[in-house]
TrEMBL record:
It comes from the Bacteria. The lineage of its organism: Bacteria, Pseudomonadati, Bacteroidota, Saprospiria, Saprospirales. Pfam families: DUF2281. InterPro entries: DUF2281. Residues 9-58 form the DUF2281 domain. It comes from Candidatus Opimibacter skivensis. This is DUF2281 domain-containing protein.
C-alpha cells in the first residue's frame, strides 16, 4: 500500500477511528523507541561487581 492510498484510507474513516489510528501509530513509535534502548553490553561490564568465594566449587 502506498503512502497516498494509505492516507486516503485513513481520511475516509470516521473521526473516532482516525483517533484510534493515531493512538496506534503513537504506540508503535514508543515500541520502536523502547527497542532501540537495548544495546549489547560491553565485554567485562560486571567486572568487580561479583565475588566468588575460593571454595565455591567445594562439595557441600
Amino acid at each position: 500500500m502506498t503512502n497516498t492510498s494509505l492516507k486516503l484510507e485513513i481520511n475516509s474513516l470516521p473521526k473516532e477511528l482516525r483517533d484510534e489510528v493515531a493512538d496506534f501509530i503513537l504506540m508503535l513509535k514508543k515500541k520502536v523507541k523502547n527497542s532501540r534502548k537495548l544495546n549489547a553490553r560491553e565485554f567485562g561490564y560486571a567486572k568487580g561487581k561479583i565475588e566468588l568465594r575460593k571454595d565455591f566449587d567445594k562439595l557441600l
